[in-house]
């Protein structure tokens, strides 16, 4: 039996969640104590980094063979596709709140839907949403996938809700017209009480490692933070008889501006209660640079710790998860190529081994 812990700011959070029908900015989403044990870790930094080389060494050692483990993907309890587009689950929006500030480039919303426990998802899975209305051919809209942003217990701790973190897609097309993405706008405009058609759950790539002593390195850009909020709630805000985390959870989050630091207060609260078990690093691309004056992307921040990250990656119980913008994958690979080469290892070979051992997990889009 799992429960929300006393450490979780559950009363203010839950009260706020349940009683907050109107949008409010990120900074007011959850009210946490302001004193942070690990405040220095999240401060703006511009440390010296070297540019990673992308070329792999010509003659390199074979990548070390990884230890065989119990696959998280074979876990019998993991449910997929319980609900399909023809017969979706119809939940209700319980809460929808904007979590980016007024000056943010674009809007991101956090929303909670009722499931009555009928969508038995795990941390790291996604759901599909079918927007109301029809497409230009008069057919129902196709589903869009969204990473689940809540732990399996859900934001209210009763296993009866599922939460998403959705960016409103608005762009100007070649003809100069403003186009609004179908499903993201449907979701961001949902009012409490409105119905929402849900499919799934789906996905096994981003399931959490079973080992409670694992090192979990989470690399998220923008709304790619969703599965990591889900992991971290389970790790730091809940109590589970069969899962007591005593490893290292290290979150890197890349966003454009400080107004878009999604769930910042929650993560800072985790840094306070997580002590040595949690590390938190932000990369704010339009406000920070490295010593070379380059934009602070997630891989730029990671490069500050590259030797340490490489040492961690040599361990059998280090698991890397990447979620968000497709472009981030290459930037992260570029750092790894250089590091692996120093040990005479071809990164692309080693990455294959890591993937096979479920230690390198990518869901980018
Ligand atoms: C596994 C997975 C998980 C996901 N999780 C999340 C999540 O947690 N949060 C989230 O917000 N999104 C997530 N997404 C993305 C989500 O599924 C939708 O693609 C997104 O919300 C846009 O859908 P839409 O219906 O609003 O846009 P649509 O109406 O489908 O429009 C999108 C289309 O618009 C066009 N387009 C988009 N931008 C531009 C541009 N700048 N210029 C020209 N054309 C453009 C492209 O053709 C694009 O395919 C995830 C995707 C996947 C695959
Ligand atoms: N599971 C999934 O597949 C999944 C889940 C959630 C979201 N998504 C997708 O992830 C994307 C996130 O979008 P968002 O709008 O939420 O993000 P966002 O707020 O725009 O943040 C993205 C951050 O990544 C930076 N960035 C841009 N190019 C990069 C690169 N090559 N390498 C590293 N960082 C880079 C951006 O910097 P600048 O803008 O300053 O250049 C920005 O700081 C969307 O496409 C969304 O649909 C996918």
TrEMBL record:
<protein>
    <submittedName>
        <fullName>Uncharacterized protein</fullName>
    </submittedName>
</protein>
């Amino acid at each position: 039996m799992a429960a929300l812990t006393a450490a979780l700011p559950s009363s203010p959070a839950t009260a706020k969640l349940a009683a907050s029908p109107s949008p409010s900015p990120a900074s007011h989403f959850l009210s946490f104590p302001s004193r942070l044990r690990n405040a220095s870790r999240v401060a703006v930094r511009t440390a010296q980094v070297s540019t990673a080389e992308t070329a792999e060494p010509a003659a390199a050692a074979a990548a070390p063979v990884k230890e065989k483990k119990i696959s998280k993907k074979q876990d019998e309890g993991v449910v997929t596709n319980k609900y399909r587009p023809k017969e979706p689950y119809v939940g209700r929006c319980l809460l929808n709140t904007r979590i980016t500030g007024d000056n943010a480039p674009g809007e991101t919303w956090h929303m909670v839907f009722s499931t009555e426990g009928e969508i038995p998802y795990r941390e790291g899975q996604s759901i599909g949403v079918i927007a109301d209305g029809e497409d230009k051919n008069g057919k129902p809209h196709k589903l869009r996938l969204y990473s689940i942003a809540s732990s399996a217990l859900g934001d209210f701790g009763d296993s009866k809700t599922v939460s998403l973190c959705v960016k409103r897609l608005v762009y100007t097309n070649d003809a100069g017209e403003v186009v609004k993405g179908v499903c993201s706008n449907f979701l961001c405009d949902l009012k409490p009480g409105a119905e929402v058609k849900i499919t799934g759950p789906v996905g096994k790539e981003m399931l959490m490692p079973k080992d409670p002593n694992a090192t979990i390195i989470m690399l998220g850009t923008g709304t790619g933070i969703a599965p990591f909020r889900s992991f971290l709630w389970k790790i730091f805000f809940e109590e589970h008889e069969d899962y007591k985390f005593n490893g290292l959870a290290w979150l890197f989050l890349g966003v454009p501006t400080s107004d878009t630091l999604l769930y910042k207060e929650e993560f800072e609260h985790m840094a306070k209660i997580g002590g040595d078990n949690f590390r938190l690093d932000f990369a704010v691309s339009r406000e920070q640079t490295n010593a070379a004056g380059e934009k602070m992307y997630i891989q730029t921040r990671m490069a500050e710790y590259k030797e340490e990250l490489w040492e961690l990656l040599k361990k059998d119980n280090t698991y890397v998860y990447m979620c968000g913008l497709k472009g981030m994958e290459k930037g992260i690979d570029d750092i790894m190529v250089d590091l692996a080469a120093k040990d005479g290892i071809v990164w692309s070979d080693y990455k294959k081994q890591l993937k096979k051992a479920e230690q390198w997990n990518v869901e980018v889009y």
